[in-house]
Amino acid sequence: MCRTVVATTPLMEENHDQRHSSAPPSSSLTSRSVDWLRILCEAEIRLLRECYRRRLPDTLAPYLFVDNHLRWCERTRDAGGKTMFSASVFSRFYTLATQTAREELTELGTFVAITEAERCPTVAFWTLRDDLSPLKRALMDTAEIDWSKDPVFSCVHLAHYAMLQEVLRDKAPHLVFRNSTFFRLPDEVARNLQFSIPEGYELAPVDASHACEIDENWPHRYAGSEEYYRSLLRLNGGLALVAASAEQPKQLAGWILTNEYGALAHLFIKPAHRQRGLAAVLVRAWSASTVQAWAGDETAAGAEVIAYILDANIASRTLFQKLGFVEMSKSRWSNPTTN
């Protein structure tokens, strides 16, 4: 029996949270009186998106993460505020509390995003800064990261990894990281994708009603992962190949989703349906659908499909490269240490 627990997270208000100051911490103030991070309203997050959009395709990873968050906000409004998020998925966005806060967003693209999960909240951050010392100090001293909850870090750009290790040496030396690679699908390749559906299968959307089945089959499931999938499916949807025959009821054979970072993710084919080319069909079909959804959207101008693949997953790396994905950059991900 699958158990579902879903938490709601309100949209950010356009006014800044009064707990945060836009003034920089001074030598006479401690992090208890003025935090090193300041929460962002939705309008400011749109400035971040534009900052990274102007630098595409080099900044695809942070651009798609921010863009995905803003689209979730829009979908929540369209649904009358009734859409429910998992606390492990929806992030609050912050930037450095400095006197040059606007430049921090429009030119340097500095942000820290933190989920509100009760255990193992996820922290993701990006910046175009050459000098990482202000960000290091913020990660060390902010009250917004509760180290007692055993936070995890995702999408850590390789250029920022050494700085983060200096932070974790004091805060969480037990964290273990996995190596992964960002792959992108060049636009000219994505627009010419072709695929055929094998006999006995059909493409079908997957939604929140499939969260339990997807979670039960995922080899990396963890406490709360069904809740995570339910939110992803409700907000981003997904695509499946369904085994269809006159003798058997329709069953999911495999699926692919878009994760909270705006990347293709969670590609899975059930063992009984492997070695039939289904994974390639799903990647091509979902990539084509994503590109089509961006057509005519000015905020998506220059965007390309991306995927994060663990370096240890040789089969997936080989598949995506065969389909035309090219390596973009390296990243590090830490694993939750609390079930």
Automatic annotation (TrEMBL):
Gene3D superfamilies in UniProt: 3.40.630.30
InterPro entries according to UniProt: Acyl-CoA_N-acyltransferase, Acyl_CoA_acyltransferase, DUF5645, GCN5-like_dom, GNAT_dom
PROSITE patterns documented for this protein: GNAT (PS51186)
Pfam families hit by this protein: DUF5645, FR47
Record's compositionally biased regions (Low complexity): 21-30
Membrane-crossing segments per the record: none
Domain N-acetyltransferase as annotated: residue spans: 198-339
MF terms in GO: acyltransferase activity, transferring groups other than amino-acyl groups
Region (Disordered): 9-30
Stored PANTHER family: GLYCINE N-ACYLTRANSFERASE-LIKE PROTEIN (PTHR20958)
Record's protein name: N-acetyltransferase domain-containing protein
Organism of provenance: Anopheles farauti
Taxonomic lineage from the root: Eukaryota, Metazoa, Ecdysozoa, Arthropoda, Hexapoda
